[in-house]
Amino acid sequence: MADARSIILHEYPASPYSEKIRLALRLKNLAWSRVEIPVIMPKPDLMPLTGGYRRTPVMQIGADIFCDTAIILRELEARFPIPTLKLPGHEGLAQMVAGWTDGRWFQASVAVIFGEMGDKVPAEFIKDREQMSGQPFNIEAMQAAAPMMRDQWRARLMLLEERLQGGKGAGAGLYLIGTKPGLVDVHAFMNVWWMHQSLPDFLAKCFESADLTKAWFERLREFEGQEPDTITSQEALRVARAAAPRLVAATTRNESQQFAPGEMVAVAPDDYGRVWVEGELVHADSQRVILQRISDEAETLHAHFPRAGYLVRRL
Ligand SMILES: N[C@@H](CCC(=O)N[C@@H](CS)C(=O)NCC(=O)O)C(=O)O
User: Fold this and answer.
1) Which CATH number is correct for 93-221, 3.30.420.40, 1.20.1050.10, 1.10.820.10, 3.40.50.300?
2) Where are the domains positioned within the chain?
């Protein structure tokens, strides 16, 4: 039974970004519930929680809603610091690595995986992703580029191998930084996991010259963690309605746009799915912005977004 303290992940099984969070939850051995959300719009029970943010995953704890894996991981680390994934040597670096795993490497995964699926990609999916990105989701172009993108993909995987080789000399080599799994591993895991789900033969071929990366991937996959409960989207709304957002000091500091608590602002991702979520600014610092929103279905909510990769403007 989910309650105001439960971690509720709004996700779908095939989502690679959700796998980052599922892995972090397994590594931390946390209890969690899940709501399976649609792969394409509409997502009618998610919108009241997020105010329009549509991407996957979204984490909910009571009436606090965390949009984007960067802020989800930051919050999990803050609320559940043991065992920590923020290892010495990861601070800041993990999110820099995420810029690479979520950017160029993810784009290579998209081209390889959808290029391979070709005609099997459903028309509604293509339409949805075109609407989300404002750009053509051109399967033919992906098919044509797939052989070159496979090379790209493997080149990126081999950087993990180099890293693990380097670590080995220092007596480690089990994880990307040192002997324990941390946030750098969580980010790097995503594309490898997605390829494993989608094109295991291609991944096996890449692994032929990447023994350490293969062992690293298997090692991370062995963490079992706790099985989540599946709850309905209606139940998640009920949890939000029954809860109050966690108390947070209304503060802003050194804001270059001089935002002050209480102002009406809007927040949107700077890449795709650029829906502006509107609300009253509660808190802003260099890595987080919190908006207070009131929705008919869930009453008062706090929506949390990262700063890097999210635009904030005064309404
Ligand atoms: N920066 C976001 C990216 C999330 C993302 O792009 N997720 C994909 C699914 S894995 C997505 O939202 N696809 C569209 C959708 O699910 O509606 C994050 O780190 O959470």
Assistant:
1) 1.20.1050.10
2) 93-221
Let me know the angle formed at the C-alpha of 98 by 313 and 220, rounded to the nearest 5 degrees: 140
Pocket test for ligand 1, best of 15, 53, 271 (most atoms within 8 A of CB): 15
Q: Tokens standing for 67?
A: 């949009």
Binding-site residues, ligand 1, Cβ < 6 A: 15-17, 54-56, 68-70, 102, 132
Helix (H, G, I), strand (E, B) or coil at 242: helix
**pLDDT for 172 beyond 80:** no
**Which ligand 1 atom lies nearest to the CA of residue 271?**
1
Q: Quick one: which of 308, 306, 309, 252 has its CA closest to 280?
A: 252
Chain centre distance of CA 300? 24
Over residues 12-31, mean pLDDT: 98
Token pair for 239 = 């949890």
pTM above 0.90, yes or no: yes
Q: What value does the CA radius of gyration of the chain take, rounded to a whole number of Å?
A: 20
Q: How far apart are CA 99 and CA 102, in angstroms?
A: 6
Q: How far is the CA of 166 from the centre of ligand 1 (A)?
A: 32
pLDDT digits (tens, 9 = 90+) for 258-312: 999 999 999 999 998 899 999 999 999 999 999 999 999 999 999 999 999 999 9
pLDDT for 178: 84
**Residue 169 scores a pLDDT above 70:** no
Nearest CA to ligand 1 atom 13: 55
Nearest atom in ligand 1 to 70's CA: 19
